[in-house]
Amino acid sequence: MTIWHMNLRHLAAAAQIVRLGTINAAAQAVNLTQPAITQALARLEGQLGLPLFERRFDGMAPTPAADILVPRIDAALALIASPHVTMARLRALLALADAGSYAGASVQTGLSLPSLHRAVSDLSLSMRRNLVQRRGKVVVLTDTGDQLARAFRLARVELETGLSEIAALQGRETRQIAIGAMPLSRARILPAAVTRFLRRHPRVRISIAEGSRAELVEPLRNGALDLMVGALRDPLLEADLTQQPLFADLPAVIGRRGHPLSSIAPGTAPAPADLARYPWTVPPRGAPLRDSFERYFAAAGIAPPPVPIESGSVMMIRQILIDSDFLTMLSPEQVAVELEAGWLEQIAQLPRGLARTIGVTTRASWRWTVVQREFMADLEAVSAEMG
After folding, report:
1. Looking at the structure, do residues 144 and 15 belong to the same domain, yes or no?
2. CA–CA gap between residue 273 and residue 290 (Å, rounded)
3. Residue whose C-alpha is closest to residue 78's, from 360, 349, 326, 365
4. How many domains does the chain have?
5. Beta-ladder partners of 181
6. Which of 117, 146, 172 is the last residue of a domain?
7. Up-side HSE of residue 185: CA atoms within 13 Å toward CB?
8. Alpha-carbon separation of residue 199 from 94, 121, 192, 286, 360 (angstroms)
9. What is the pTM of this model?
10. Helices (H) and strands (E) in the chain — how many of each?
11. Are 284 and 366 part of one and the same domain?
12. Which of 117, 288, 306 minimizes the C-alpha distance to 213?
């Protein structure tokens, strides 16, 4: 079963029964008759395959299934924030947003074009907002439509997570964790945490999307990712995100084996002025490493050296360094294999004040599941062991 088989009004009724304790009170709260709510509840429990309530003489007592599902329902309804949204309308707008056209949305969902047009049009009319607009032959969402689609995506995540937790309660593991991996996390920390976690939960599905923060932050905010692991931002500019530190990482100046600066006497580190005589490749402005790069030379009273190549790709940087006299700032963890193989070497250490904080970024509204909390505990354990 998917969330598209469910009825938002019926889900709201179940939440009200938990809150108010009786079907009669819930019927008044959602403007349905008592027989209608009774029928809706029976249908919902049939879809889930579990009872949500124990029927008692003094009212309705939630079961463990309701304790799992209802907080997700409440979170989803708070995001939807309108009694005019039906599951069909929610699905139609999300399909249109994801596919970029009604034809694509029809292929994606299997719904007919007229039903999609009608659902989006009815949603627009009921909310008294223009949600889509035509640009030639292309249909795009308005700013209001984009904002609504983001809220709907997060509501979908809440409901899908609730269903997966119900399935786990029944012994059917459908849970998954979607992780955004920034460069440093891919070196050792994230792989170690994943393998540790999967030894205990081999049936939980883990998907990992690699990229820079700029590439991963919107999927995180839209609900496509559950968490993002990598260098934290200070200050954090997105009010809807939150950060949790794991450990501090101190980058080093890295160059090729046999770099001209390698010939400096053993135990003598190159001065900032020596480092500034060579070209550098570092990430674009806004990245913590770029900030460390600029602060290092500013503290020495030297203008930062030229950066002909801006890149956050360790693979790209590695090859550039091997084939030239370029320098970079990277965590030794990120190029541990290259250092051990003798392709690269550490040219200079950096002051402790240039350490960056590595951690986990999530949505501020995100509700952790049991397995997600266990995975976070594994991340913390691995970070402590490797720190």
Report:
1. yes
2. 18
3. 365
4. 3
5. 210, 229
6. 172
7. 28
8. 36, 49, 11, 37, 22
9. 0.83
10. 15, 14
11. no
12. 288
Q: Are residues 256 and 343 in the same domain?
A: yes
Residue 228 is given by DSSP the state: E
Whether residues 22 and 159 fall in one domain: yes
The range of the structural domain enclosing residue 99 comes to 1-172
In single-letter form, the type of residue at position 345 comes to E
Reading the chain (387 residues) residue by residue, the pLDDT tens digits are: 799 999 999 999 999 999 999 998 998 888 888 999 999 999 999 999 999 999 888 889 999 999 999 999 999 999 999 999 999 999 999 999 999 889 999 999 999 999 999 999 999 999 999 999 887 777 889 999 999 999 999 999 999 999 999 998 888 877 899 999 988 787 788 999 999 999 999 989 999 999 888 899 999 999 999 999 998 998 888 999 999 999 998 999 999 999 999 876 556 779 999 999 999 999 998 888 899 999 999 999 999 999 999 998 888 999 999 999 999 999 898 898 899 999 999 999 899 889 889 999 999 989 898 899 999 999 999 998 876
Provide the token pair at 328: 């970079």
Phi, psi of 100 (to 5 degrees): 85, 0
Question: Of 347, 341, 373, nearest to 360 (Cα)?
Answer: 373
CATH code of the domain in which 57 resides: 1.10.10.10
Angstrom distance (rounded) from CA 385 to CA 131 = 50
CATH number, residue 367? 3.40.190.10
Residue located via tokens 């995180």: 220
User: Using the 8-state DSSP alphabet, how is residue 3 labeled?
Assistant: G
Token pair for residue 289? 């490493």
Q: Which of 143, 221, 187, 159 is nearest to 382 (CA)?
A: 187
Buried b (16+ CB within 10 A) or exposed e, 83-102: eebbbbbbbbbbbbbebeeb
* Beta-carbon count within 10 A of 45 CB: 17
254 vs 302: CA distance, rounded Å: 19
Residues linked to residue 254 through DSSP beta bridges, in sequence order: 328, 346
Q: Which residues of 193-235 form beta strands (DSSP E)?
A: 205-210, 227-231
User: Comparing C-alpha atoms, which of 215, 346, 234 is closest to residue 295?
Assistant: 234
For 178, half-sphere exposure in the C-beta direction (CA atoms, 13 angstrom radius) is: 17
